[in-house]
Each structure stands twice: as C-alpha cells, then as structure tokens.
C-alpha cells in the first residue's frame, strides 16, 4: 500500500490547509527536502483546538491535539505538494507542547503526530528523529505546535 491508500484506510479526514497569518512560508522545498513550518491543530471547520495541557486539557486530549496537528501537516503536503506519496520519509519532527510547569509527558503527547506519520508512511519511513519539549505558551493558546522535515522522492 502507498501512503495515500494507508491514509484512506485510516478513515480520517484532512482539515483545510492553513494559510500564513504572519511573515513566513508554510513550506519550503530545497532539493529533495521538504521543510514544514510550525503547524497548529486545525479542525475541519478551520477553528483551532485551544488550551494548555495540564490545566484546560488532559494528556489524552493533548495527544489527540498532536494527531490533529499531524493531519493539518498532511493537509499542507496534500494541498501544496500534491500527494502524500511524494514523501519518501520523515526525517525530523519538533513537537512543542503548551503545558503547565509541572507537566512532564511531552513525548507522549507528540506521539499523537508520530503515530499518525508511522501509520501513513510505515514504521521504517514514517518515524524519524524527534524532539518533544514543553513551552509556557504557544500562539493563540494552542496546545501543540509541530514542525517537520521530510525527504521527497
């Protein structure tokens, strides 16, 4: 199965690809590499999931928010690159978690995105290197922001 077929088998829907609200590009292609800017959790109705993990959201809601960020990133790829099949592999993921100072499960939250990528591109190509870190705040009080680097075919 290719990435598009795997995604369709998951039964998930892509939200609309976000448009920049600041001075940046949502993606850049450099040779065989695709860089995605930080993405937030956009829902199908274009609204954002909002809230700090450890206060307004629990760890499971945070993990679901990270999966929604992954879906938003897939939407950017599908919209601007044309197909998930053009991605050879995930190289790096940086996950930023908006959380309370005592929260310590950042990697578990970012697994929401990483597990999605593994399901779409397979474990060999869908899992790259990763960092998962906590932040005191993120734009618009989103719970998770993720940026990534991919290798293109």
TrEMBL record:
SUPFAM superfamilies: YjgF-like. InterPro entries: Endoribo_LPSP/chorism_mut-like, RutC-like_sf. Residues 5-124 form the Endoribonuclease L-PSP/chorismate mutase-like domain. Pfam families: YjgF_endoribonc. PANTHER family: ENDORIBONUCLEASE L-PSP_CHORISMATE MUTASE-LIKE DOMAIN-CONTAINING PROTEIN (PTHR43760:SF1), ENDORIBONUCLEASE-RELATED (PTHR43760). This is Endoribonuclease L-PSP/chorismate mutase-like domain-containing protein.
